[in-house]
Design brief:
Helix content is 36%, strand content 16%. By secondary structure, it is of the alpha+beta class. The strands form two sheets. Strands 4-5-3-6 form a four-stranded antiparallel β-sheet. A hairpin with a 2-residue loop joins strand 1 and strand 2. Belongs to the ycf54 family. Pfam families: Ycf54.
Length: 212
């Protein structure tokens, strides 16, 4: 009896499979699932983020920030500045986590209803004037990350490591954010890029620069 049931089930299974094939062929090509191609990183195929690319999770950094408004130019505070070269801040694969730290900080401040006080300044006007010795140690063009929150800046200094920390007391946001140069256009060499993901789009940091 058991053998008879097995023999009878086989044709039914084939019929069901045939029905599925017919149903699939009836779907227009444009509606069928498109296969995902693994992203190319540095001339090699990165398997790590294939699923993320399939879901559209990897986007230019500037498109993934919560909408926010920077601190008012007239706000006066005691600022902390972390200084390094523009290349170190924006073109070093080891520092791409910095953008993630900023994005998380923006989200945190937005939830609390507080303004965003983290600013990037390229070739600050105060650098040579107030800190000539520190300026001489930094490759140019120099960039400063400034913020009045000492606890968060201590965290970022430890995170970034190779930066120079200075204090800018009793200054307005406009004064600390005065820049004398644009951030240069970096040319990323794909063959030398070692991170397991594509680099963020150039210019994501501009959202943290006060406009004149």
């Amino acid at each position: 009896m058991q053998a008879t049931l097995t023999i009878q089930a086989a044709p039914a299974a084939r019929v069901q499979a045939r029905r599925q094939q017919v149903a699939c062929s009836a779907v227009p090509p444009q509606q069928r699932a498109v296969s995902v191609v693994a992203p190319k990183v540095g001339g090699r195929t990165s398997q790590r983020n294939v699923a993320a690319h399939a879901k559209g999770a990897i986007k230019p950094m500037e498109a993934t920030f919560t909408e926010f408004k920077l601190v008012d130019k007239s706000k006066k505070a005691d600022w902390i500045a972390l200084i390094a070269s523009a290349d170190f801040f924006f073109n070093d694969s080891q520092n791409e986590s910095m953008a993630e730290n900023l994005r998380e900080r923006v989200r945190y401040l937005a939830e609390k209803g507080e303004e965003v006080e983290m600013l990037f300044v390229c070739e600050p006007a105060w650098l040579e004037k107030l800190f000539p010795a520190e300026a001489a140690k930094c490759r140019r063009p120099a960039v400063a990350l400034v913020c009045p929150d000492r606890s968060w800046m201590t965290f970022m200094r430890i995170r970034l490591d190779r930066v120079i920390e200075v204090s800018l007391p009793n200054m307005t946001a406009e004064e600390v954010a005065t820049s004398t140069q644009e951030v240069p256009k970096f040319k990323i060499d794909a063959e030398k890029w070692t991170a397991p993901y594509v680099p963020y789009a150039w210019g994501w940091w501009e959202r943290f620069m006060l406009k004149k």
